[in-house]
Design a protein that fits this description.
Elements: E1 7-11, H1 16-27, E2 32-37, H2 40-49, E3 53-56, H3 62-75, E4 81-84, H4 103-131, E5 134-139, H5 152-172, E6 177-182, H6 190-193, H7 209-222, E7 226-227, H8 232-242, H9 244-258
Parallel strand pairs: 1-2, 1-4, 2-3, 4-5, 5-6, 6-7
Helix pairs in contact: 1-7, 3-4, 4-5, 8-9
């Protein structure tokens, strides 16, 4: 997919990877960019900088996403690319207890990291199926393919997000709908700024949001399901599949080294 001339929505677009995606898509000639975030002021500021539209939306709300899609398709035009980029990263309340995160945090993490993707698809699929075209880009994380030491809720929801993306790609391939999962490791964003320990996520370096956006443009051009800004993630996936027990042992060893 070439983004030039396309109507694109980016959630979590006010900062970090989302903002970098918006700016890179604008540089590539996107027709119109809708910047969605809980931070209305920054969403509007980013949108204004690229001649787009800013909207405050809680992506965990199905009705809010449905209303957003209806507004855009009615007033701006058909959405060509919907980027579900918003996400949250809770840490285990007790690093020695994978079930220690409070239920309320599990619920919110599930709503934002998984159900936001489902809500976007539910609102857009009937339209995209009718048009026989459309693209979903879902920012997931390498944690969805591997794991995240110290955050069971994050790792679990990101695995679930991969599962839903696979279902989208399989079910709707013959409808002309494409799906990509953006799966970086550590990126210089406000999300990791609040985490005292990276717990191995930075083992292959910390990328800038701009580098991730560049990898995304390349991945979309190839229509790759997995977009891996940190290329070594592909090697880790293979090693995990080859010998799951050995991989788990290696992750446990990494965890011990980080304590």
């Amino acid at each position: 997919m070439e983004v030039a001339g396309k109507v694109i929505v980016v959630t979590g677009g006010a900062v970090g990877i989302g903002r970098a995606l918006v700016e890179r898509f604008a540089k590539a000639g996107a027709k119109h960019l809708v910047v969605v975030d809980l931070d209305a002021a920054n969403a509007n500021a980013v949108a204004t900088s690229v001649g787009g539209t800013g909207r405050r939306v809680d992506v965990a709300s199905a009705s809010a996403i449905a209303a957003l899609v209806e507004e855009i398709e009615t007033t701006i035009g058909p959405i060509d690319l919907f980027c579900s980029n918003a996400g949250i990263l809770p840490v285990d309340s007790d690093p020695n207890n994978a079930a220690s995160t409070p239920e309320a945090e599990w619920t919110r993490t599930w709503q934002v990291n998984v159900m936001a993707h489902v809500h976007a698809a539910a609102a857009l699929l009937p339209r995209m199926i009718a048009r026989k075209s459309g693209y979903f880009l879902q920012t997931v994380s390498a944690a969805g393919l591997l794991s995240q030491i110290g955050s069971a809720a994050y790792s679990t929801t990101k695995h679930a997000a991969i599962g839903f993306a696979e279902s989208l790609a399989i079910t709707h391939r013959d409808h002309g709908i494409k799906v990509s999962c953006l799966c970086p490791q550590a990126v210089q964003t406000p999300m990791i700024a609040g985490v005292s320990k990276m717990n191995g996520a930075d083992i292959d370096g910390v990328l800038t949001p701009e580098a991730v956006a560049e990898a995304t443009i390349e991945g979309l051009a190839k229509e790759s399901f997995l977009i891996l800004p940190h290329p070594k993630v592909a090697t880790y996936i293979v090693k995990k599949a080859e010998n799951y027990d050995r991989w788990l042992g290696g992750m446990a060893k990494l965890r011990r080294s980080l304590l």
